[in-house]
Amino acid sequence: MSETRKNYVRPLDLKHGQVDMAHGSGGRAMAQLIEELFAKYLGNEYLAQGDDGALLPPLGAGKLVMATDCHVVSPLFFPGGDIGCLSVHGTINDVAMMGAQPLWLAAGFILEEGFPLSDLARIVQSMAAAAKEAGVPIVTGDTKVVERGKGDGVFITTTGVGVVAPGMELSGNKARPGDAILVSGTLGDHGMAIMAERESLGFDSLIVSDTAALHGLIAAMRASGAEIHVLRDPTRGGLATTLNEIARQSGVGMMLQEKALPVQPAVSAACEFLGLDPLYVANEGKLVAICAAGDAEKLLSAMRAHPLGGAAAIVGTVHVDDHHFVQMTTSFGGKRIVDWLSGDQLPRIC
Amino acid sequence: MKYIDEFRDGEVAQGIAGAIAREVNPDRRYHFMEFCGGHTHAISRYGVTDLLPPNVQMIHGPGCPVCVLPIGRVDQAIKLALEQEVTLCTYGDCLRVPASDGLSLLKAKARGGDIRMIYSSADALALAQKYPERQVVFFAIGFETTTPPTAVVIRQAAALGLKNFSVLCCHVLTPSAMASILQSPEIGVSGTVQIDGFIGPAHVSTIIGSRPYEFVAAEYGKPVVIAGFEPLDVMQAVRMLIRQVNEGRAEVENEFSRAVDRNGNVKAQKLVAEVFELRETFEWRGLGVLPHSALQIRQEFAEFDAEKRFPLDYVPVADHQACDCAAILRGVKKPQDCKLFGTVCTPENAIGSCMVSSEGACAAHYSYGRYKDV
Questions:
Q1: Phi and psi of B332, rounded to 5°?
Q2: Which residue is closest to B204 within chain A, CA to CA?
Q3: What structural domains does chain A harbor?
Q4: Interface contact A336-B45, CB threshold 8 A
Q5: Model pTM?
Q6: A77-121 pLDDT tens trace
Q7: Angle at CA A288, nearest 5°, toward A127 and B367?
């Protein structure tokens, strides 16, 4: 007698099935969804405990870092990734930017009634692959279902925990006048990959999202011995917004060199076409590092030697400025402010 | 990017800056108005003024499509979305223009209006075809550059016999705005504001050609140099204007010869003439009610005219009392002269329309140049 026959369970139809309200009701259907989808792909010893929470081993020395990130991307699948791997990378990066080694993740799913189970399976498999590659297991989770029309397919919230590595006291308030500003690679890839995919745009591009977990790159940067003051991932709002946040937190000004900013030609062309500025476009696999001036070259070499930092560059310096302006010497030879993002970036029309 | 990077080259810019510095007469001041928001944006974004001598001053003009859109027109669009429950489509920046009752199209969207940002007039037509049960209105704004695409979709809608598509036409005409500036009390009459020449429109001129500006040189004695929207275009145009001033000439010259000729795009002009006709009058934000300064949909295409399809009275609404947009749009004041600038009026909470679009004088100065004020 087969396993299925013995338990009188009809397996989930992962090919044609859809999420329905029962999948969030707490009953048998939900248990089945967890077992045949989430546990099957994300499986690890902690998730297998099957209790209300994950019981985790005690930690050694080092402060704890906890970070959470909600993911509501549209479209759910885009060139270079999907909401699944994005939700893993996003939270790992938030933990890692605090100088911590990410250890575990929790994942919360809000599913919309009618969402194809085949898409959900793709997303969960993508999360599993990303978690495995990063070495950061998803140890607990939750699923809720909302009525059709009250969600956008699937929303995923992930929370991560990590332990700060010795000597990594990082904060956005630690940028000092004289420090160097580095970025780990080309700017705007993720945002433009998403924009190009949106149905209303109607242009084809080869731009691929840069979504990636950056804790490996950070480990290599730490190993270089460079005195790093600030790490941050320039996601929503792009590099410009991230630098404005740091400038305000640290009470300093910054001067960027436009010529030094790495931007892929395809991204810069797509931005030009839509009237956008790559400095404000989201990244999901890039970081900004601010370090002591004397260590900039050393840090740059360490970044470039890592597969996720091949296009790293020194892009500017920190200086004294009571107004906390982020400014830029344009490649044209003038100066301007690189301001906070105001509202959503809307295309210019004329 | 080919054909773009060449026009943003810093070394060439230094060369032109050197030539300008040699050619200016140090004993006089030069005041040039860049008509278009596209120029204003390029000047601010690339820091062009840093490369000009101190006695050459740029004055921002009114050529930003959303800046000159009066509150009453945005009110009409909001009314269509909230009261007539149409699907209202428009271009990006238009969504943020402040209207009556603290609303904007973006805020009306949050109140439940079906308001869509589109990239092309064709997107609006496609929506009408996709949702035949809904009335789709395209809120069409802009100068002559955006007019032909509106004409195209109106013709297509007629050919398709669409019953659920119409256009709220707010297209305006550049030469009328230039004439209004030249006749304004401060510039034309009292001469308290000096304008020695104009940088003429880039994209608009690809459609209408350079001929329509000839009255500026002939009747008002002001030089015009049509220039592209890249920073080197602006630098070169400034140099050409300085030469005209120094030599006592007032002509229409064309720096943007890679895209503009004297007659413009005749095919597009014919298309526009087929679908649109001159309005008797149109209210502009900042410039007031100007005769023959805008377009309306011809009687043959009346069924696609949202003003005829829906009960829409035009009610003019005055700007905020302390807002200096009107004077800023005419070049009479600078953004930083306005009491509201940077305090009450910021890009996040725009009171005046010049703070809305990145092409608006106030938004450009706030976003790119305000470090110079402190």
A1: -80, -30
A2: A350
A3: 63-164 (3.30.1330.10), 180-337 (3.90.650.10)
A4: yes
A5: 0.89
A6: 999 999 999 999 999 999 999 999 999 999 999 999 999 999 999
A7: 110
